[in-house]
Each structure stands twice: as structure tokens, then as C-alpha cells.
Design brief:
Layout (H helix, E strand, L loop, with lengths): L10 H11 L17 E2 L10 E2 L2 E2 L8 E9 L3 E10 L5 E5 L14 E5 L2 E5 L15 E5 L4 E5 L13 E5 L2 E9 L2 E10 L11 E4 L20 E3 L2 E3 L1
Parallel strand pairs: 1-6
Antiparallel strand pairs: 2-4, 3-4, 4-5, 5-6, 7-8, 8-9, 9-10, 11-12, 12-13, 13-14, 15-16
Length: about 240
């Protein structure tokens, strides 16, 4: 359908100007420039991307190593493979890592942390059958020996979930939120890594889940959120 510009209201010109302003460079763009850096793979077939719902440490190691584990490939294949990106070199090399013990296994929507030489993974959607219970094991990879270990302390453990966050303050890691199918969480659970070898070390349930309840003192249940550690606080 054609448009008769000559008969159009003069207000249309005024309405179009803000759209043109959006084309301008944002303020201070020169101070925060984006750049694109290609990744170098061992061969064209060894490329882990694209994928969704993988776990990646948000802070690289002191050498600049970034770990990537699991996720959903092509919308149909859930994987449990492990990759590393060497961001501390001029060439961003990305390659798969073979471990000397069995890792967490295929999952999507899990959370991870890099603490010293430990790459830590918890949760994720591990369900293959409708009756499967989600994995509630805490996994730790020694990045030096490339060996996975599992923390299965006595007592109650946080329910397996996905879409949660995993943070650390001091020596304690914290799990918050997430979901299992249509059930959403706003509980807060802690685990002391310094007491990892202590047989009496257990998960600490600091705040219980408030399913169906409303509280002005705590955030509602949620999934796929972001939480930041700062000093002695967790910022949601």
C-alpha cells in the first residue's frame, strides 16, 4: 500500500526525530568500546558453540583460564563435556578437556564457580525420564590434576534445581533460588568449603523456601536471576 506523504500530518515529522536520535552513538561509547576476538580451535570440528544453559566461571583464573561445562546444543542435545578458553594469551585458544574421573554428566541450567584451583558445579536439569529426581550432588574439579570429586555430606541437601545462582563469601558457598519444573525457590543454603573434609560438615539451610507465601523481608521465588558477591553481602 502506498503512502501519500504530501497529505500526511506535519506532526509525523516531529514524531520521527526521536527515532533518528537513537542512531547516534551512546554517550561515552569511546570509553567502553566493544571488540570482537575470534577463538582458536584445535580443528574446525572442535567447536563447542553455539550452546545454551552451560556453566561458565564468571571470574577467570589468575592465568586467565575460563571453564565451560555442559549445556544444550542445537536445542536438542544435552551434554556434560568440559572446555577451556585460555584468555590470558594473545590467541584465545579453546579446546576440550579430558578428565581422569567421571564428571557431573549431561545437564543444562546449572551453576558454577572457580575458587582457587577448584571449578565447582551444582544443579542443572538432569532429568531424562519424567520420574527422575534432579541431581543434588556438589561437584569439584581440581583444575591442576583434572580430577572430579563429589561432596556428599551427611544430612539434608538442597533440592536439585536449575536456574539458581552459586556465589561465595569467605569460604562459604551460597545457593539461592532456581526451579524444578513449575516449582520456584527463594531459599538460601550455604556450605563451608574449608570444612570439606570434615565428616560433620553439612549444608546449612539459612532461609527456607516460602512456596505460596509472601514476605516483605525477602525476595520472591525466582529463576534465571543474577546474584553478585560484594564484601560481606549478596546483591540480587
Amino acid at each position: 500500500m502506498g503512502c501519500n506523504i504530501s497529505n500526511a500530518s506535519p506532526n509525523l515529522e516531529l514524531q520521527a526525530r526521536p527515532a533518528q536520535q537513537h542512531m547516534r552513538a551512546p554517550p561515552h561509547a569511546d570509553l567502553y568500546p566493544w571488540s570482537q576476538k575470534p577463538l582458536a580451535f584445535p580443528n574446525p570440528q572442535a567447536n563447542p558453540f553455539p550452546r545454551y544453559g552451560a556453566a561458565v566461571n564468571s571470574i577467570a583464573s589468575k592465568e586467565g583460564d575460563i571453564y565451560l561445562m555442559g549445556g544444550l546444543i542445537n536445542g536438542e542435545t544435552v551434554t556434560g563435556d568440559l572446555w577451556m578458553v585460555e584468555a590470558g594469551t594473545s590467541q584465545l585458544s579453546c579446546y576440550p578437556i579430558a578428565t581422569v574421573s567421571e564428571g557431573p554428566g549431561p545437564r543444562v541450567g546449572h551453576a558454577s564457580l572457580l575458587v582457587g584451583n577448584a571449578f565447582i558445579v551444582f544443579g542443572g536439569d538432569t532429568q531424562q525420564e519424567d520420574t527422575d529426581v534432579l541431581d543434588d550432588t556438589l561437584y569439584l574439579l581440581n583444575t591442576t590434576s583434572r580430577q572430579w570429586s563429589r561432596a556428599s555430606p551427611p544430612g539434608t541437601r538442597p533440592a536439585g534445581r536449575y536456574g539458581h545462582t552459586l556465589n561465595i563469601l569467605g569460604s562459604r558457598i551460597y545457593i539461592f533460588g532456581g526451579q524444578v519444573e513449575g516449582t520456584f525457590y527463594n531459599d538460601l543454603i550455604a556450605f563451608d568449603l574449608n570444612a570439606l573434609q570434615n565428616p560433620n560438615n553439612q549444608w546449612e539451610f539459612l532461609i527456607s523456601n516460602t512456596v505460596g507465601e509472601k514476605s516483605l523481608d525477602m525476595p520472591p521465588a525466582r529463576t534465571n536471576h543474577t546474584m553478585i558477591s560484594h564484601n560481606d553481602s549478596l546483591l540480587l
